[in-house]
Structure formats: structure tokens, C-alpha cells
Cytochrome P450 86B1
Amino acid sequence: MDTAVSQNATVAAAAGAGSGGGLAGLLPEVQTLEVLVAVSIFVAIHSLRQRRTQGLPTWPVVGMLPSLLLGIRGDMYEWITGVLKARGGTFTFRGPWFTNLQCVVTADPRNLEHLLKTRFGSFPKGPYFRDTVRDLLGDGIFGADDEAWRRQRRAASLEFHSAEFRALTASSLVELVHGRLLPVLAGAEAAGAAVDLQDVLLRLTFDNVCMIAFGVDPGCLRPGLPEIPFARAFEDATEATTLRFVTPTAAWRAMRALGVGHERVLRRSLAAVDEFAYDVIRRRREELGGDDAGAGRRSSDLLTVFTRMRDEDGRPYTDKFLRDICVNFILAGRDTSSVALAWFFWLLRRNPGAEARILEEIEGILAARKEAGEVVVEEEVVFRPEEVKRMEYLHAALSEALRLYPSVPVDHKEVCTSWRTRCFRTGRC
């Protein structure tokens, strides 16, 4: 057999030589194509095998990062949900070597209850999360843990449940909806123009939350939908901070030191946010009579309330603390409310039966007003608290929208050192 192969090879070589070496010239291209086909087959088999066993393909050095980068280009949350579903609700993400992108991702209700309720104190946000968001959120409640978190939550909770704060929230919403939102929608309808509802709702909630947090109206929802520098800077800072979570820590820290990429955008945006916040704080202190917490006007916005308060040592809160409180509250109230409303109206558009039942419920309340002898002007209707409590189907529809599309779909937790040590020693977590 060896002899036959040699003879065939000799004949082929002779034929190649007789044709002017054309076949020999094609051999490098053929070999390159064979290598590419072999590599492609290997990649396909490797991807399918690891997707079946680990949820995502894992590569040397870069880990699962290529799959993550491809996933976030589309509908990131649907992609994550698909991976979790295939893995039974929990999978381990392995990022590039020597980075912090190593984590366990879970959507199992039992795990969530364990993390967020049963053993809440054992799973703080942790130093990685705090270091990542500190430039934007400072020492506010979003990045705080332990006693700092409890103290801020206690103070904010007392204020949120006060009658003055509820009245401020209701009055600002009525003013914004009737004075700005409805005219904007009516103007677009009259002109036959399309409306980016998500953008309009984001402007609505941003104006509302700034009025509640700072006592200042930025005017994002004014006619013409102007671009407000503070709102733009806040949006850019939030986006740049989010990008840190999908960037290796060493990489974004190097970018911050060099002032390039999204870290350059973050630095410029934070300068604008801080300038606005500290200017409002300075003017508010002047309105309240400097450091005299009992002086000045009576108001229920968060900045005024916390400016009047004292810390555990009996001293006024610093400007930095006030800035962090208000920026955290803006972040908490702006995106969550607007995202929830955007998904809600999107779902109503796809489910006309649910929309009809909500309208029927509202019309029933208006009919009850007419029966009581009240004059109802539909453009000026403001529902009373007791009437809102009767809107059971609307409440159910909003709750279902939040279940299907939660405003905060991802939460970051770490394991505290003492709890990790106890798990290793006892084998019980």
C-alpha cells in the first residue's frame, strides 16, 4: 500500500510539473481553507457542548465574555432569561481571567427568598458594587450596607410616610400630568405626529422626582421637549456607570486614570451633575437661614427635610451627604417609574381586552360621581385616594406588568466573609 501511495504521489507531482506548477500554487490556499473549516467545526462543537453543560461557551483567557457582549447587543434581559431557563434557573458566569466578572446568576424564587429575606444580612452589596458606583452615587442608600443603609432607610421611610410628603407627591404629579403631559400628547395627536412614549414618560418622572428630591423643576416635559443639561448629564453618568459592570475592573480603572472612553464621559457628566446639585444645596441652605435648621420656609422635599435634620452626633449633614441622598433618590424614582409605565402601556396595546376593562372601571367611578350630582369635566378629572383604591383591575394589571417586566430586573449581592467562612466549615448555608 505504501508503494502505491508513492507511485500516485509521483504521478501527481509529474502532472503538476507538466501543467506549469498550477496545482502546487493552489495547495497553500487549499490548506488554509481546510484549517478554517476545521477551526469552524471545532468552535461549533465546543460551543454546543459547553452551552449544554455550562449555559454559555467558555474560552481560554476571555471566559464567557464574548457571549455576554453578543447578548447585550440585543434584548439583554430576554437573553439572560433564556440562558437561565435552559439551566434550570441558575448558572455560573465565568468572565475573563484575573477579573471580577465571576458570579452566580439566579432567578430561582427559593434562592431569591434566601438572599433577600431569610439571610438578607449575610448578602450585602459588597465592596465591588460600592467601588463601581461610588463616583455617581457616593455613600447613598443604593451603595450602602449595614448600619449606614439602615440609618438612611429609616430616615427616608419616615419621610415617605408623612402626610406632607404624600401631598407634595400628589400635587406635583397632578400639575405635571394636566399642565404638561396631556398638552404634549394632545399636540402630537393634533399634528398627527408619532410620540416616543418612553421618552415622554422618562421626562415626566424626571421632572416629578427632581421636584420631590430637590424642590426644583428642571422642565424636561415643557412644550417642545427641550434638552435639559442636568437631565442629559445624569443620563450619561448613569449609562457610563452601568458599563463598568461589563468591563473588567482593571480596564475601567485604567480608562479612568487616562480619561478615555466611557470614563471620560462619566467624568464630564459627573461634573455637570455635581455643579447642579451643590448649587441647589447652597441656595437651599441660604433659604433656610444657613445652619439654623428651624429657620426658613416650610417644605417637604427631601433636600429641605434632610437639611433640617442632624446626624447621630447632633451635627448638620454635610453638602456631600445631601448630594448623595438626592442623587440616589433621583436614580431610584426616575427610571423605575418610567420603565414600569412604558411596559404597562406596551402591554395594554397588545391586550385590548385588558384596556377595555380598565376603561370600564374608570367610567364606573365617573358615573358614580355623576349620580352623586358632581359635574365631571373629563379633561380635569383628578381621582381621589378612596376612588383609586376601588380600581382593583387597574391595580392587578399594573402588578402583572411589574411581574412580567420588573423595573429593576437585576440585583447584585455578595457573600459576607463571616457567612462564607461558616458555610465552608459547616457545609450549611
Observations:
- The first strand starts at residue 90 and ends at 94.
- The beta strands are 90-94, 102-106.
- Residues 22-54 form the longest helix (33 residues).
